Recover the amino acids of this structure.
């Protein structure tokens, strides 16, 4: 299916449609998952416009403001989601201006919600992570344990874990070749426990995806999310609503709790911007400074 068809508002796809040509010109700047996500966010905006009889190329600032209000008040999206989707809309209109499709961008001065400096996700506690690992280890599905190890011990992003193929060896250490954000390929050293989990999952296979679904094909992020939810439900401990990034968050906060330097944590997490790592650190510190924790520490001290 082409970009024109994916962004269709119900009219026949034609190569001369100005809107679809403008969308294709904008999306051509992205590759891989970045393109998929940008296309999804842009399609949602186009559908919103179509339902209200608005031509996106003739939209006014007030109409784009209404789109923001709709996301906030009707769909109840989080500020980070609204801001991300508006970044795509703003980028689309800026590209239209650059290409001469529009004289000015109607989204240029639209106000977006402030995104908190700290991450709202706190990750799992050490006991919760251990319980999830134990449940995955005892699962009849060998890919469950490998999945939890890749996310909760290596801190891989979900698309990195699902897209992993190659195991190798560098300087006597087993490594996993991971294709990260921006198409960058990195070698991630494998601790023995993670290597054993991967060996158990791959069995006799020497090539192909590390993680497979029940149909024997590559596990995607949706299947992985369902498996994590099932493992959390089967765990003996009470778990928060499970999603893949929670395990990556757990890895980062665990390293910070252990006193690892922020710069080293940034390198390990492969964050391009140190401010991303600092968001995890702020969330952890906010929890540590909560009055309930301060009171508990005071009572435990016996003073």
């Amino acid at each position: 299916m082409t970009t024109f068809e994916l962004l269709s508002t119900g009219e026949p796809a034609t190569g001369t449609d100005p809107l679809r040509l403008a969308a294709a010109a904008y999306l051509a700047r992205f590759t891989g998952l970045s393109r998929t996500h940008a296309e999804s966010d842009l399609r949602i905006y186009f559908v919103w416009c179509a339902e209200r009889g608005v031509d996106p190329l003739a939209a006014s600032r007030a109409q784009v403001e209404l789109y923001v209000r709709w996301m906030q008040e009707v769909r109840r999206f989080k500020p980070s989601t609204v801001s991300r989707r508006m970044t795509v809309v703003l980028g689309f209109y800026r590209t239209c201006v650059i290409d001469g499709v529009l004289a000015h961008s109607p989204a240029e001065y639209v106000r977006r919600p402030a995104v908190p400096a700290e991450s709202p996700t706190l990750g799992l506690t050490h006991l919760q992570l251990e319980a999830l690992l134990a449940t995955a280890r005892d699962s009849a599905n060998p890919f469950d344990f490998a999945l939890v190890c890749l996310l909760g011990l290596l801190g891989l992003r979900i698309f990195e874990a699902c897209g992993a193929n190659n195991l190798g060896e560098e300087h006597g250490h087993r490594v996993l070749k991971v294709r990260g954000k921006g198409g960058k390929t990195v070698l991630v050293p494998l601790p023995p426990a993670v290597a054993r989990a991967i060996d158990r999952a791959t069995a006799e296979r020497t090539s192909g995806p590390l993680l497979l679904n029940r149909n024997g094909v590559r596990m995607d992020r949706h299947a992985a999310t369902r498996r994590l939810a099932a493992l959390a439900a089967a765990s003996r401990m009470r778990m928060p609503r499970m999603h893949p990034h929670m395990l990556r968050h757990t890895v980062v906060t665990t390293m910070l709790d252990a006193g690892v330097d922020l710069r080293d944590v940034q390198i390990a997490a492969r964050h391009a911007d140190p401010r991303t790592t600092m968001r995890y650190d702020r969330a952890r510190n906010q929890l540590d400074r909560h009055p309930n924790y301060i009171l508990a520490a005071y009572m435990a001290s016996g003073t």
